[in-house]
Amino acid sequence: MLKIAESSPTRLILRDQRRWASLLAVIFTLISMGALIIFMAQIVTIIESRYERDGMLWVMVTIIFFLLIISLVMIGIIATRHLTYGIHCEFDRQAETMTIRRIGVFRPIEIRHSIYAISHVEAHHNSEIGVYGIFLILKDNSQIPLASFYVIDETEMQTVINEIRTFLRR
Predict the structure, then answer these.
(1) Is the pLDDT of residue 82 over 90?
(2) Fold annotation for 3-17+86-169
């Protein structure tokens, strides 16, 4: 959930770091790495006897399981990196910029716009899944997605929206 990290007349910093989700991602990654280590230790000890008995079928099954475990480790690493970094949104009146930093699949992404290009802030409600989306609307009518909030967090969402509006009006 997007929270106010710093609020001053010249700077507004919003952060979204999901600590519990990142902890679960770390646990998932460690379990996947443990499974990979156990798998590799078992394969090394029985490689010759199983190949002589079962032949190429055993090799193919082993490769499939190896690739499956490696992919679980990679998914865990990507999820951990994404969730621990989170989203950073910085409005800076002195530099006259609004910067959003987040992690893409493989590298950090930075979106930078002028504060004066922002027209207003809108919240869209999706009643099917019970989520609000906060969007920055630019003067050319393009939308920049900022964050999402569950319906139960509506008061926190209104606090963030009011803080952004107050900062932009100054």
Answers:
(1) no
(2) PH-domain like (2.30.29)
